Amino acid sequence: MTTFPKDFLWGGAVAAHQLEGAWQAEGKGVSLADVMTAGSNQTPRKITAGVQAGENYPNHTGIDFYHHYKEDIKLFAELGLKCFRTSIAWTRIFPQGDEAKPNEAGLKFYDDLFAELLKYDIQPVVTLSHFEMPYHLVTEYGGWRNRKLIDFFTKFARVVFQRYRQQVKYWMTFNEINNQAQLDDWFLFTNSGLQVQPGEDAAELMYQAGHYELVASALAVQIGHQINPDFQIGGMFAMGPSYPASPDPRDVMKAERTMQANYWFTDVQCKGKYPAWLKQYWNRQNYQLDITLEDEDVLKAGTVDYIGFSYYASHVVQATDAEADDFMTQASDTQVTNPTLQASAWGWLIDPVGLRYALNWFTDRYDLPLFIVENGLGAVDKFAKGQIHDPYRIAYLRDHIQQMALAIAVDGVNLIGYTPWGIIDLVSAGTGEMSKRYGVIYVDKDDQGQGTLKRWKKDSFTWFQHVIATNGQDLT
Ligand code: BG6
Predict the structure, then answer these.
(1) What confidence tens digit (pLDDT) does each residue in 410-422 have?
(2) What does the alpha-carbon distance between residue 220 and residue 216 come to, in Å, rounded to a whole number?
(3) Would you place residue 206 in the very low, low, confident or very high pLDDT band (cuts 50, 70, 90)?
């Protein structure tokens, strides 16, 4: 029996700012990612006020995919990829974000990139906004706190939908739009370009920015479908299931509310409206959000075609003694360890069955096609004489693919594709490190930015090549 559908989209995922480099090439503007320094597991990345001399900004050079893409795509073809998920760097197209006209050189780069992929029958899968909005929109407009961003974003979307209407079918609007629900400074910045000022309520700000993004996304879906009715335009969510710490019903309620509080973005993008619990919450908090009746119509008319999501880890939550009736204590303050699971070197819990759980959860709630557009293991690889033995990565991917197969064969979920994250080593979004490697292709570059940039196949390359060749039938 063949488990995976015959046109299953086996692929690999990246994001422009994490691999392209060439941060100023041919008119590109400064993005959010260009003002983030290198960090580590212990030291958070800094967000600097503009690009400053003497700082190390790893995204400025990435792995120089901008100049190596032909060679890399050749390797992707050898691997057998059916699709390649990347993003369009908004700042290549609109360097500042608010220009009247797009930058032709930036558009041309993606013409060439997509043509190169299609030459090998590799479908581009494209995210419009992946943690890389123009920095100018932050300094001049305050990021997504400002309604004007809707116009800037939809203009960008229209231009690229129009330009690549024959090359790209699968799109996603905002990468991991729900990360910001965690309310930490990092995600507020990377998702929405928000920098919370003294006296501001971070949550209220996040709900407002999130609303403008959801309106922008819904408008983009409508624009895209007008330009090409065959477009498949998805949302993209960070999925990390929250399990209750115990059978205590209060823990169960806590886990339920944590899921609701993380996936209301998904509710809006899939169902076209805000969930009742959230509206109650806003009323009780006395938030004054700018949500018009017209916006509500837009949300209804711009629901997504599929659910794209990343899956790396699961979490366990426990109700605190002081939990209010709404169970809205910040989930990160209520997380406890899961003694049944091992963690990666960066502390991410490895939970393949959680992926099956997630596939079922999304299906029950939204009944839409699902696309796993990120999944993988960040690990330190040892390079020795041109060889990289990475059995830990093979085991991770195998265990997750096995659960995908069960979700399809036993649970009947409609899973259309799988693009493991960082198919080629790139700059970590969270830490800015190169040494947190996900790829099946190794890139010779270290955390200090030194290296030849030469590409090497890891053991996982040959393994994944065989998985794709057998359409997921043989995972040995
Ligand atoms: C997702 C992002 O959150 O996780 C990627 O969409 C990111 O951009 C990936 O790289 C892995 O996270 P990290 O911090 O290990 O790079």
Answers:
(1) 999 999 999 999 9
(2) 6
(3) very high
Residue 332's pLDDT is 73
* Domain residue spans of the chain: 9-469
Q: Give distance in angstroms: CA of 392 to centre of ligand 1.
A: 19
Alpha carbon separation from 78 to 71, 81, 167 (Å, rounded)? 11, 8, 21
Is 374 one of the annotated active-site residues of the chain?
Answer: yes
Q: Which sign does the torsion angle of CA 29, 32, 35, 40 carry?
A: negative
Per-residue burial over 111-120, b if 16 or more Cβ lie within 10 Å, else e, is eebbebbeee
**Considering only CA atoms, which residue is closest to atom 15 of ligand 1?**
428
pLDDT above 80 (res 431): yes
- Which ligand 1 atom is nearest residue 431's CA? 14
Residue 23 confidence class, pLDDT cut points 50, 70, 90 = very high
CATH fold for domain 9-469: TIM Barrel (3.20.20)
Q: Which amino acid is at 13?
A: A
Per-residue confidence band for 334, with pLDDT thresholds at 50, 70 and 90: confident
Substitution site in 346, 373, 421, 426 for ligand 1 pocket (most atoms within 8 Å of beta carbon): 421
CA-nearest residue for atom 4, ligand 1, is 429
Q: What is the pLDDT of residues 142-184, one digit of tens each?
A: 999 999 999 999 999 999 999 999 999 999 999 999 999 999 9
Q: Average pLDDT in the 77-106 region?
A: 98
Whether the CB of 15 sits within 6 Å of ligand 1: yes
Residue with tokens 């928000």: 194
Give the chain's mean pLDDT.
97
Distance between CA 57 and CA 39 in Å, rounded? 10
For residue 333, pLDDT over 80 is answered with no
- Please give the C-alpha separations between residue 62 and each of 58, 68, 96, 419, in angstroms, as whole numbers: 6, 11, 21, 20
**CA 426 – CA 58 distance, rounded (Å):** 10
Burial environment of residue 449 by CB neighbours within 10 A (0 to 12, 13 to 18, 19 or more): middle
Q: Which residue out of 18, 374, 375 has the highest number of ligand 1 atoms within 8 Å of its CB and is therefore the one to mutate?
A: 374
Q: Is 180 in the pocket of ligand 1 (CB under 6 A)?
A: no
- Cα–Cα distance between 173 and 185 in angstroms, integer? 22
For residue 353, what are its two tokens? 């069955």
